[in-house]
Structure formats: C-alpha cells, structure tokens
Amino acid sequence: MKAKFTFLVALVFFIVGYSPDTFGIFNNTPSLKPFPVIGQQKEPALVKIKELDDSFIIDLKYATTDNFTGKKIYSQDICLIHRNTAQKLISAHKEFKQLGYRIKIYDAYRPYSAQRILYDAAENKSFLADPEKGSNHNRGAAVDITLVDEKGDELPMPSMFDEFSKKSRIDYYNTTRELINNRELLGRVMIKHGFKRIGNEWWHFDDTKAKQYPLLDIPFEDFMDPRPSGLLSELQSITYPTYLCTRCRVGRFTFC
Ligand SMILES: [Zn+2]
C-alpha cells in the first residue's frame, strides 16, 4: 500500500516536473541552501586588534593545543576582528581599564573552515554554532573574552573557558558572590558598548550588528606580513580545506 502511494506521488511529481526530493519528502537529507561564504576581503573588513590597541591581552586558544580538541586548529596566531566590532571592543576596554582591568581575548575571528572542524570535534554540539548557519565568529563579529587584573591574573569566573557545563551559563547562580560579580561586570560593560550575551557561555559576546556582516573563510595567512607563497601556500590549503564548493557554495568539496 505504502509502495503504491509512493509510486503515485512520484508519478504526480514527475508529471508536474519536480523531483520528489525537491521537498525532502522521501529522505532525511537536510535541505542545502546556497551559503555565501566569502574567501577574500573585498574591503578591509577584518583588522588586527593589536594594531588598534596593543593593551589587549591575546591568548587565542585555538591557535594552541590548549583547547577542548587538544589540537591546534588555527594555523597562525593572529587575532582578527571586524573593524566595526573592534571599535566597540576598544570602547569597552577603555571602561574596563578605568576600573583596573584589561580584556583577555580567547577567540575573535574564526574562519568558516575552522568552525566545521570545531563542530565536528565537539561532543556537546550545543556550545557551537551549526556550520550550516555559521557563527558570528566567522563574521569577525563575536569575541570570547575574560578579564585580568593589574597583575595580569585572570579574574575567577564560575567556570573555565569552553567548559561545557551548566556553570558556564549566564544564569548559573549556585556559586560565590565574587564569581557572579565578576561575570556580571564583564557582561554589563560589554552590553553597554554594543554587545549581546548568549545563555550558555559567559565568555561569548556577539556584536549586536553581527548579522549585517558576511560569513568569511579568509585564511590567517592573508594577514601575515609578508604573505607566504609557493609550497607554504599548498600546505595552508591542507590546513584549511575548502568545505564548500567554490562554484555553487552548496557542495561539500572544492568542486562538487
Ligand atoms: Zn564564542
């Protein structure tokens, strides 16, 4: 009976000129939409934050093995950020400095290719943006940060960075007043300067305008000085495989 029904539906689709899979009726394959990921800067959207304000402390965790994957994900230790987001972060940093603190940056711009590597590596996917949608980190418009005191020591927070537990939530209150105050100070000042918090990561802040900026897959090497070439470039393409077809932006390989 089911086979007969399926045959009839397929016949109708055939007659009207559609493949049954057009609507994803017959299998569970997710619908793949064109996915604009930009591989080169048409305008200088990304900037090196240190060149604008060298008082930030940079500790890019994914450029080291000190992250939840235990592997070095970024090929270069270069902290990049969208230029408009940078202005907001610098103004927040000014306020923190007046209070005797400085911002330590764990992550900022993350190439789209790296998002997929992290997503595939994570056991708990709820802490990472689905690569099908992209992350605001891929836009250069999100930062993972904490605060350090005048001696450079991190302020204690309710959880470690990238700790995938309820202690990382911004509504976790089963801890000391000091830890809550530190987390809320970070959140309050960032919101004042044009950022949004997310529920499950106290360290993550999205630029409120993030969605206005495109997803990017520009390799860090484009920001090296001087830019490498030849054999090194080939090695980089291994480090940063192109997951999306460069023609249709839908397929999973360089050319689908
Ligand atoms: Zn983040």
From TrEMBL:
Catalytic reactions of this protein: D-alanyl-D-alanine + H2O = 2 D-alanine
Residues the record marks as active site: 201
Domain of life: Bacteria
Keyword Cell membrane included in the entry's annotation: no
GO biological process, one term: cell wall organization
An example molecular function term from Gene Ontology annotations: D-Ala-D-Ala dipeptidase activity
E.C. number: 3.4.13.22
Binding-site positions, Zn(2+): 137, 144, 204
Enzyme class, first EC level, given as a word: hydrolase
Keywords linked to the UniProt accession: Cell wall biogenesis/degradation, Dipeptidase, Hydrolase, Metal-binding, Metalloprotease, Protease, Zinc
Cofactor: Zn(2+)
Keyword field contains Iron: no
HAMAP family: A_A_dipeptidase (MF_01924)
Biological role: Catalyzes hydrolysis of the D-alanyl-D-alanine dipeptide.
Protein name: D-alanyl-D-alanine dipeptidase
Gene encoding the protein: ddpX
